[in-house]
Amino acid sequence: MAVPGPAAPTEPYAELPDASREALERYLAYLGDVRRRADKTLRNYRTDIEDFLRFLATRGAALEEAGRSDGRAYLGWLRDRGTAEGSVKRRATTIRGFYGWLDREGVTLRAKPGDSMLRLRYPKSTRRLPQFLSTTEVERLVEGADAQTPAGLRDRALLELLYAAGLRVSEVAGLDVGHLDLVNRQVRVRGKGDKTRIGLFGEPAHDALREYIERGRPALLPAGRTADALFLNRSGGRLSARSIQTVVRRSGTQAGILRRVHPHLLRHTFATHMLEGDADLRIVQHLLGHSSADTTQIYTAVAQRRHEALVTSALQRARTIEAERRERGER
């Protein structure tokens, strides 16, 4: 008969022990200084790991003695609280990564034999396919921006670049004018892990960016001021990632697109349309800045499903036409 472990805690948690806090701060410093993780990513790591460490403290389990059974209890507790499956899976990965770092740092982990936290896993689930816009929806989205105002010229250039180059919102927010090469239709972006790559864009984005730089951006920049940022707000400062999200969402509403439009949806759309156009998977992987082709691979499933839907629809129309012809012939 299995002996039940300590009960899951009820909030509020116990205080975080000094040893656990010190280990967490050292790990975050490593992620920031060595792995070059973004500030937002570090905040997420802090929240996830600190929550787990407080869970351990409430159960009376020391950091070094906690094992996979403690990790599973924590994940089960999260599910019972209604935490989204994706968030539970992310926390499992984060906790395992934290303990992997402790192990590499020489911290003696004293879990029971066979109960190592390094073996913590989350059951694989069916991966949801990314959503994307049709080419018609993209056209409506971009053309909805008012090209007669500085802000409208900026918004059109912003939307064109997000779609044409498949950039992340943080990458676009960090762009300077000097990162743009209009002659060769290239943009240099700094992505995850502080990695730099070159993004490409076509003629529509080129034209929209040129119009914005020549007519829109100077009008947004106060007299006598200079700025490096490519996309400016109404005060002449850098347009933030949150403001870019607002621009995209508002543009989607104005275009009459029923689903919620956000920058990452345009990134999904870029990848899907590229693969539908028979682009090489490795090229799309590079343009997206994915470290693994496995991450990019999911878009091939999206393109394949869309292709199957189009074929099914075409066959259905053909059957309908054939049935109507037979019916007319019988008459």
Description of the structure:
There is one protein chain. The chain folds into two domains: 18-119, DNA polymerase, domain 1; 135-290, hpI Integrase, Chain A. Helices cover 58% and strands 4% of the residues. It is built from twelve helices and three strands. It has a three-stranded antiparallel beta sheet. Helix 3 packs antiparallel against helix 4 (85-104), helix 6 (150-165) runs antiparallel to helix 8 and helix 6 (150-165) packs across helix 10 (263-276). The protein is globular, with a radius of gyration of 25 Å.
Annotate the secondary structure layout:
Layout: H1 18-33, H2 39-59, H3 68-80, H4 85-104, H5 135-143, H6 150-165, H7 169-173, E1 180-181, E2 186-190, E3 196-200, H8 203-220, H9 241-254, H10 263-276, H11 281-288, H12 293-330
Antiparallel strand pairs: 1-2, 2-3
Q: Roughly how many Å is the radius of gyration? A: 25 Å
Q: What is the H/E string?
A: HHHHHHHEEEHHHHH
Please tally the helical runs, counting DSSP H or I stretches of 4 or more residues: 12
Spatial strand arrangement across the major sheet: 1-2-3
Task: Please describe the biggest sheet, giving its number of strands, its sense, and whether it closes into a barrel.
Answer: 3 strands, antiparallel
Percent helix range: 55-70%
Overall mean confidence score, pLDDT? 85
Distance between the termini: 78 Å
CATH homology superfamily name of the largest domain: Intergrase catalytic core
- Name given to the CATH architecture of the largest domain: Orthogonal Bundle
Low-confidence stretches: 1-10
Structural class: mainly alpha
* CATH topology descriptor of the largest domain: hpI Integrase, Chain A
Envelope shape: globular
